């Protein structure tokens, strides 16, 4: 089993920045990819970004490309989401997730059902 704990959410004005953290514990050796999703009220959970745990390759949703950056610190078993130029439409609960399968050939996990472990979520609110 793998446990994921997010932190770093909060209230920020439009144009501001936040950095989310996700600390992984347990059988982290089984993780190949980690990702961030978000869910706004009344909407489905959507993919934000993902990172390959060993090689560090990344992928982003079009809505956050150029504004958000996902990174990881393997020594700390922690993944980060740096969010810049935040917009009111970025308001959501942000979830960290992990995958036990390896995706090769430039493929990456972007679907909710592809992820095996989830954190409890952290609220991000962007005011206009």
Structure characteristics:
mainly beta, 128 residues, 7-stranded mixed beta sheet, 11 strands, 50% strand, 4-stranded antiparallel beta sheet, single chain
Describe the structure.
With 128 residues, the chain is mainly beta. 0% of the residues lie in helices and 50% in strands. Strands 2, 4, 5, 6, 9, 10 and 11 form a seven-stranded mixed beta sheet that branches. Strands 1-3-8-7 form a four-stranded antiparallel beta sheet, with no helix packed on it. The radius of gyration is 14 Å and the shape is globular. It starts with a strand and ends with a strand.
SSE layout:
Layout: E1 2-7, E2 10-13, E3 18-26, E4 33-39, E5 46-52, E6 58-60, E7 68-73, E8 78-83, E9 92-99, E10 117-118, E11 122-127
Parallel strand pairs: 2-11
Antiparallel strand pairs: 1-3, 3-8, 4-5, 4-9, 5-6, 7-8, 9-10, 9-11
Report a brief summary of the structure:
The protein has no helices and eleven strands. By secondary structure, it is an all-beta fold.
Q: What structural category do the secondary elements indicate?
A: mainly beta
Distance between the termini: 40 Å
Number of helices: 0
Percentage of residues assigned to helices: under 10%
Question: What is the residue-mean pLDDT, rounded to a whole number?
Answer: 96
Series of H and E elements: EEEEEEEEEEE
Overall, the morphology is globular
How many extended strands? 11
Assembly type of the shown chains? single chain
Radius of gyration: 14 Å
Unreliable residue runs: none
Strand content range: over 45%
Largest sheet: 7 strands, mixed
